Inverse folding.
């Protein structure tokens, strides 16, 4: 069942962040929300995470239409934000155990889920180490694992590859695409970098809070030309 966002609008004073934004996310699919800085991507993620109130618009989640994201809806979502969210002084395993506890998972389920995400994202050799000793790409993989512990239907990524080197970015892309295909999770990938996307990914290009282009990503040359044209107009 798709996740639908309809006619979502949000302002910060006189500044328009989102303007009548509408789209759907399908299971087992990576949907790229591509746009320059200031396009409204982070505002959208914060609204879906319940960190901002929805000023206008509605959502369809698990077949139910609603005007705001309620706490019980968050069980359907896993989030990875731009800002680092791991405790750098605790081991990767301790970070995952703490997150699993926040989701209310009992000890046996906690161990089962941590084992699952560790195998899924190849984290076994990282969990004994503190995140402060890991590379940016390794930390991001632990953060994604943490976001999956409660087995959400939707994984929302807010520019997760910012600051990573190209090898780490491409490995992260591979992990995310395999996750969508193998686990049936619908992924919303907010980014302004095109080379981590694949031809078959669904594509939304936004500028000034509005969807300017819909379709599939297609080849990199066409994607980059389309995006540059919209981004230049945004500036």
């Amino acid at each position: 069942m798709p996740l639908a966002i309809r006619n979502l609008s949000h302002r910060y004073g006189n500044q328009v962040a989102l303007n009548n934004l509408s789209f759907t996310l399908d299971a087992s699919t990576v949907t790229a929300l591509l746009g320059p800085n200031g396009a409204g991507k982070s505002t959208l993620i914060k609204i879906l995470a319940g960190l901002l109130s929805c000023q206008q618009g509605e959502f369809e989640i698990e077949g139910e239409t609603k005007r705001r994201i309620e706490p019980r809806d968050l069980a359907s979502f896993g989030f990875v934000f731009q800002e680092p969210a791991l405790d750098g002084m605790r081991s990767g395993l301790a970070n995952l155990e703490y997150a699993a506890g926040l989701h209310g998972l009992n000890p046996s389920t906690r161990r089962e889920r941590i084992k699952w995400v560790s195998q899924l994202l190849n984290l076994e050799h990282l969990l004994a180490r503190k995140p402060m000793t890991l590379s940016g790409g390794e930390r991001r993989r632990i953060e994604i694992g943490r976001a999956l512990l409660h087995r959400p239907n939707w994984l929302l990524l807010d520019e997760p590859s910012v600051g990573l080197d190209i090898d780490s970015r491409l490995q992260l892309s591979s992990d995310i695409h395999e996750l969508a295909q193998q686990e049936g999770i619908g992924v919303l990938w907010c980014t302004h970098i095109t080379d981590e996307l694949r031809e078959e990914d669904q594509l939304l290009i936004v500028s000034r809070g509005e969807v300017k282009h819909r379709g599939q990503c297609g080849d990199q040359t066409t994607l980059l030309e389309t995006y540059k044209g919209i981004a230049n107009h945004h500036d």
In short: The beta strands are 3-12, 15-25, 30-34, 56-61, 64-66, 77-80, 154-158, 186-191, 202-207, 210-216. The chain is about 35% helix and 25% strand. Residues 52 and 111 are 33 Å apart (CA to CA). Residues 166-183 form the longest helix (18 residues).
